[in-house]
Amino acid sequence: MKVRVLVSFKDSVLDPQGQTVKNALHTLGYKNISDVRQGKVFEVDITDMSDADIEKIIPEISNKVLANPIIEKFTWEILE
Amino acid sequence: MKVRVLVSFKDSVLDPQGQTVKNALHTLGYKNISDVRQGKVFEVDITDMSDADIEKIIPEISNKVLANPIIEKFTWEILE
Amino acid sequence: MIEKKIIKEHGLTEQEYEKIVELIGREPNLTELGIFSLMWSEHCSYKSSKIHLKKLPTSGENVIQGPGENAGIMDIGDGLAIVFKIESHNHPSFIEPYQGAATGVGGILRDIFTMGARPIALMDSLRFGPLSQAHNKSIMEGVVSGIAGYGNSIGIPTVGGEIYFNKCYSPNPLVNVFCIGLARKEKIFYAKAEGAGNSVLYVGSKTGRDGIHGATMASAEFDEDLEKKRPNVQVGDPFKEKLLLEACLEVMDKDLIVGIQDMGAAGLTCSTSEMASNSGSGIAINLDLVPQREEGMTPYEIMLSESQERMLIVAKRDKVQAVQEIFEKWDLEAIHIGQVTDGDKLKVEANGQEVVNIPVDSIVNLCPVYDRPFERPAYLDKLDQLDSLPLPENLNQTLLDLLTDPTQADKEWVFRQYDHMVQTNTALLPGADASVIRIKGTKKALATTLDGNPLYSYLDPKSGGKIAVAEACRNLSCVGAYPIGVTNCLNFGNPEKPEIMWQFKEIVEGISEACLAFDIPITGGNVSFYNETDGKPIHPTPVLGIVGIIPDLDKSIGPGFIDNGEAIFLLGNNRDEIGGTAYLKSQFQMEKGRPPQIDLEEEKRVQNLCLEAIDDGLLSSAHDISEGGLALCLFECAFLSAKKIGCVVHLSDNIRSDSLLFGETQSRILVTAPSHHLSRILNLAKERGVFAKKIGETGGAKIEIGHQNKTLIDLDVQTAFQAWKQAIPESFKIR
Amino acid sequence: MKFGIVIFPGSNCDYDTFNVLRDVFHMETVFLWHKDHNIKDVDCIILPGGFSYGDYLRSGAIARFSPLMQEVKEFAMKGGLVLGICNGFQVLLELGLLPGAMLRNKNLKFLCQHVHIRIEEKKTPFTKRGEKGQVLRIPIAHFDGNYYDSEEGIETLIENNQIVFRYSEHNGLISDKGNVNGSKESVAGIINKAGNVMGMMPHPERASEAILGSEDGKIIFQSIIDWLA
Ligand SMILES: Nc1ncnc2c1ncn2[C@@H]1O[C@H](COP(=O)(O)OP(=O)(O)O)[C@@H](O)[C@H]1O
Ligand SMILES: [Mg+2]
After folding, report:
1. C496-507: string of b/e by CB count within 10 Å (b at 16+)?
2. What distance in Å separates the CA atoms of residue C694 and residue C691, rounded to the nearest whole number?
3. To the nearest whole number, what is the mean pLDDT of chain C?
4. Are B70 and D94 a contacting pair at CB < 8 A?
5. pLDDT confidence of A69, banded at 50, 70, 90?
6. Bridge partners (DSSP) listed for residue C259
7. pLDDT at residue C217, rounded to an integer
């Protein structure tokens, strides 16, 4: 089973990386790009686990390891 | 319009960050996690642009800016 | 009408609230209350520490600016001034180690360049809980990479620092960061808002809802409610800071501004009101003009936000455009948000309405000052006696245990993550007693060091304070630097507890006494209270940052053995003092006993002798004896020698062998010299009234320490070196 | 003979490099601002170390779009000497003037320390003063110095003798131990096929004065000066 976890800064937290990318795109002439936010993506392979357990474990590892809940939020989806 | 671009290492490139996360998860007892790969995600807001233009522009900025094609690959999807 | 509950949530007492009402002649509105709560917090007002800090000596002929500004300033000749300060970022680092430490670096850098100085070096003093616990490891990993991430990126070398491990810092770490900058004397700037009608400019990052209540948080003890209180921790943007640094230094260099102040803790509130108050003027700003990162921010939020990488500038009326052009060059905006006014008020407008109108003095200067009760803690009565301890059977093993205790072990794992060489001035790499930074264009160099032994301070606060100063100076003496100025960071528990207040008072008195003895002024510092977790305070932890001058860099020496066959001298006396040592802690898990006592006059004689001998070119190396005692000192001299040279040493003192090897008697320096300097050194020592003795010779691949007719230590340098070097990396390998 | 040092907003070894060229080698040296289109008739361009744009996206990724970089590219195409140090090397990779890419150091930590590098090619404008096999002691200070290219890319580099420096042990031995950051083929510095554009991760400007602990870096600057003379 493959799960994708997306981690990004909470909306109220400054995202200097995204801002820098946005500025670069503007300099290159892509003026229609009004905002960029940068985050992390984890593709996690899991073997031998029930769907119910996955439902439980993914938020758990996201909170503990993949994301820092103080400044980051996460979403996840099962890929296959 | 919001577009999500996912950038990750090509399969041929080692991903030590992903490995470190995997090891950390194993230490915490999540033994069923057989692999982790880490990449970047960009959420790009675009205003006033036709779908056709977006189809053209996203691969362009991904190749030029968001990803380095020597080591990275990307996929993208329109979110809304 | 403001409810009592809200007053309490703002960390203000009812009496304090009444005083506010009296000062402004009416009830404050919520935004005004927020402003008072920030500016009257412990962190910003020093209300509990002020009366004690007054005892510190702060004047001296080279002092250009003592405490009271963003940083201290001292004249170092050649038309140059140094600007330096230390700050704590303990609480933010506890909550989010990486960003907390990173923004700590950002903050101290702004304190330095806001005065017109280009930062030339950073140092960090860190305290963590034992690495045997996973969460302490991850805090340390985060803190170190946060400091690296910020400092490296801006290009300020982190040239040194210190780290102690003790369970009292688990999980509340201490992160103190020191910065020193160099300015031309005629280009120093202050936080001034002079000249009614002059423009108030906002520069740097946009304002977001970051760390609202950060300053009040730094003044509240942590408890189990932490989860709920968890604020929005700031994320640092070092690239923005680099732009800000370059742009600010450029407008200052071109003489376009009247005054400048960083927005650190208490952001816009603190910078506007302090600048006005410093100049006896008023200030008026319009919040609608403040660049905002988020929509719908209230005046309360904008005034209290602690977003990083922002500065406030007061520009000469006719120079605003010139200022804006320079900021534009650096891809930043300088936005006019208000002006200096006659009168004495901070006036804030938003959406066409006046939302704040209070006298600047009331927020900046009229916070109540407390003489909090103090009382000698009861724990001290139990610590004084040491029952007779068994002598370790295998002293080689005892030594290896001491060497591999993370507090004594090699810190390369940490400092190689820091760019310590950028700016190409680092003449002595991290790992030595002090850091040496040359001043290009002169023969001179600066030496800097951070010091503070928390164990001594816990067991005997006054001695702890004195020794922290003495040891820092001793570190400077060892590289041939004359101490000139001091900054200090005082980390303590809850000052509302009489025992904590007592520790504080004692330590400040100790520091004061030592600074007077060395005739070095304190030019600034920082106090961090409320370092407690679930009611358990940390050991009182003063961290002294002392700066010295090396008149001729070519004469400076380091701690490592230079050559085989050189004579090893001990300057100073060995005494039987074993209390409070690293040895007791490592061998017997004891934090007990009377720590070493110090005679400041004796200390000065030893240091002066060392300085004189270096100046006369007599010495090859010098290293001070501190944690781990004489034995550890010898091993460090071998480890820090390029060729890993060993030595043979013989001691004859009538002292119990463990105490002789590992005792931490003060006022001792181990030096080496070519043998033909022997008589000159001994004569000089005699003339200067210092006990000095040749105790051995360098050479070989082993370290052998004999005592009377026994061999106490006989160890291969390489074996010990590898153990010392690997200790910290190993503990990070185990997950 | 004139040297130009590029300043990006986040460069931080610009003055260090300038000082060495001016004070140690007494060369005429000017700064080139990233927003300008003017390379001021220099004979050699140096892209210094630092964090050109905070290195937020990837090291050197955004710097390559600076107006000045188009001029640098043209200068290089015409055979002008270009040296990229550390972040400058990363910019040259992103710019496509040199092949390959940088990954994070193998231990995932920033590394600042003296390392040993072995001169692999003497016949370049940047190393002619050295000897093949000579070991230099020079500091590194980077997070992303783990050189990567595809198998074919690496083969091409080797075939064309484009690897100029390799990380080694103090005695010149190429080994995993000496390869501090995990680079493919222990690559510490490479040159383009035409032989006028070189990138290296170690900082020669930090090893050009005795007081800083090593003068081995002088070989690189002296070679350029000899070449241009
Ligand atoms: N332990 C101390 N010793 C001497 N001066 C101190 C100490 N703590 C704080 N100060 C001084 O009090 C003033 C206010 O400090 P602080 O609020 O930390 O300044 P800022 O936040 O602007 O950096 C500073 O001038 C500082 O140097
Ligand atoms: Mg300040």
Report:
1. ebebbbbbbbbb
2. 11
3. 94
4. no
5. confident
6. C314
7. 52
Minimal C-alpha gap between D211 and chain C (Å)? 6
Going by alpha carbons, the residue nearest to atom 18 of ligand 1 is C526
Of D62, D100, D104, the CB nearest to B70: D100
The ligand whose atoms approach the alpha carbon of C42 most closely is: 1
Helix axes C717-733, C629-639, angle to 10 degrees: 90
Measured distance CA(D160)–CA(C390) in Å, rounded: 69
Q: CATH number of the domain at B2-78, please?
A: 3.30.1280.10
Q: Are C287 and C350 in contact (CB under 8 A)?
A: yes
Q: Is the pLDDT of residue C313 over 70?
A: yes
End-to-end CA distance of chain D: 7
Query: Is the predicted pLDDT of residue C223 greater than 50, yes or no?
Result: no
From the DSSP assignment, how many helices (H) and strands (E) are in chain B?
A: 2, 3
Supply the ipTM of this predicted assembly: 0.94
Q: What is the DSSP string of C392-438?
A: PS-HHHHHHHHHHSTTTS--HHHHTTS--STTS-EEE-TTSSSEEEE
Q: Do C266 and C329 form a contact (C-beta atoms < 8 A)?
A: no
Mutate: best of D103, D147, D154, D157, partner B, most B CBs <10 A: D103
How are beta strands C174-184 and C158-165 bridged, if at all? unpaired
Q: What is the mean pLDDT of residues C667-686?
A: 97
Contact predicate C293/C183, CB 8 Å: no
pLDDT value of residue C131 = 96
Domain tally, chain D: 1
CB C307 within 8 A of CB C234: yes
Task: Please judge whether A34 and B45 are an interchain contact, meaning their C-beta atoms are less than 8 angstroms apart.
Answer: yes
Residue C16 burial (CB count, 10 A): 17
Give the percent of chain C with pLDDT over 70. Answer: 97
Sign of the alpha-carbon dihedral angle for C460, C463, C468, C471: negative
Of A8, A34, A45, the CB nearest to B35: A45
Interchain proximity A27–D57, CB inside 8 Å: no
D197 CA distance to ligand 2 centroid (A)?
Answer: 45
Which residues lie across from B6 on neighbouring strands? B41, B75
Chain A residues with beta carbon closer than 8 angstroms to that of B15: none
CA-based nearest residue in chain A for residue D52: A20
Confidence tier at C1 by pLDDT (50, 70, 90): low
CA distance C400 to C380: 30
pTM of the model: 0.95
Which residues of chain B lie closer than 8 angstroms to D62, CB-CB?
65
Catalytic residue from among C10, C52, C89, C623: C89
Q: Which domain holds residue D179?
A: 2-228
Ligand 1 pocket test, pick from C69, C526, C527 with the greatest ligand atom count within 8 Å of Cβ, gives C526
Specify whether the CB–CB gap between C167 and C538 falls below 8 A: no
Q: So what's the pLDDT on residue C9? A: 86
Cα nearest neighbour of A14 on chain C: C235
pLDDT, tens digit, 9 for 90 and up, residues C570-588? 999 999 999 999 999 999 9
Distance from C-alpha of C204 to C-alpha of C209, rounded to nearest angstrom: 15
Tens digit of each residue's pLDDT (9 = 90 or more) over C445-487:
999 999 999 999 999 999 999 999 999 999 999 999 999 999 9
Looking at residue C211, its pLDDT comes to 77
Q: How far is CA D6 from CA A25, A51, C281, D15, D84, in A?
A: 22, 55, 44, 10, 10
Which tens digits make up the pLDDT trace of C400-423? 999 999 999 999 999 999 999 999
Nearest atom within ligand 1 for CA of residue C108: 23
Rounded distance between C-alpha atoms, residue D200 and residue D87, angstroms: 9
Q: List Cα–Cα distances, C402 to C579, C724, C727, in angstroms.
A: 16, 9, 11
| pLDDT for res C230 | 36
